[in-house]
Amino acid sequence: MRYCLKNIYYLGVKELQGLLRDKLLILLIIYSFSLQLYTVKTSSTDTISDAAVAIIDNDGSQLSKRLVDGIAPPYFLVPKAINYEEIDASMDRGDYTFVIVIPNNFERDVQAGNCPEIQLNVDATRMGQAFTGAGYIQQIFNQETRDFLHDSGVNIQTLAEVNIRNRFNPNLTGSWFDVLMQLANSVTMFAIILTGAALIRERERGTLEHLMVMPVTAFQIMASKVWSMTVVVFLATGVSLLLVVKWWLDIPTMGNLWLFMGGVALHLFAMTAMGIFLACVAESMPQLGMLMILVLLPLQMLSGGSTPRESMPDFVQNVMLLAPTTHFNIIAQGVLFRGANLLDIWKEYLWIAGIGSVFYTYSLSKFRKSL
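RE: above sequence
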């Protein structure tokens, strides 16, 4: 047993030394766990931010000024007053995403219950902001109008008042979710890439035959690749979570980070075994890349990291329960967003451990046959 563990350790150290000599792969790891997360946070999302707005206030009343003051940062820039003749030219130049025209006698008509209309011109070429921003403006105007009528002593007949409270992400900042899910996707991707590339590299360089004539078993070879690549991705994930996500990008996390890292370790066990299996099927690095595209896209798109699982057909939900990424995303979202504890996610731990054991056993069998 001691001799077996010693072989696994030294073979794993050899894998780490080989990885350190691959400068391009090291740069890819650093980029994916740092700059790529920054890019995701700062890129365009469905959350509106600093949208340019112009106002034509033909009423000049207290209510119209209140509506203008409601259009404020961080969702919108401070509105600029323009003339009616400037609307077409300014929107053609792309100066404003929204141009709002408040009609004459707007306040008087509101108080009289005549339901006057406000014209909202939207630059629909900016798809990320057009739809969301128009909804925000409508909500702001409705709320400001109700508050104004209430302050004026006008009786407003409503059946119910809806009070929305957003938990875990009060400001609905979409980049928080996108960054943490990108981190989870990077864990999955590199677990497969590193182990698969390590085996393919052995085969292409002819060193796999050298290992076969040495007093080591297929289990020891596979275990060494699994633990060494697991350590690399595990450390990259921990450093990225602490230094990039929490410190640099200032994204809050709610739960115990060690609980999340435990899920990372189990997930890496399952996905590195899958990487060995794909490397046994592929005969070269290009074939491994093609197989990864076929495997990674469904795993990322259907496991709840991009869209909620509840919105998918029941058949897809049930099938994806067999994928470790589904349970890993549940752990990541539960711990990092909702502050879940072990009692909340212990079933997901068991799922990943069971699926990983099956993957590892089957991959080991496949690896032995390939030798």
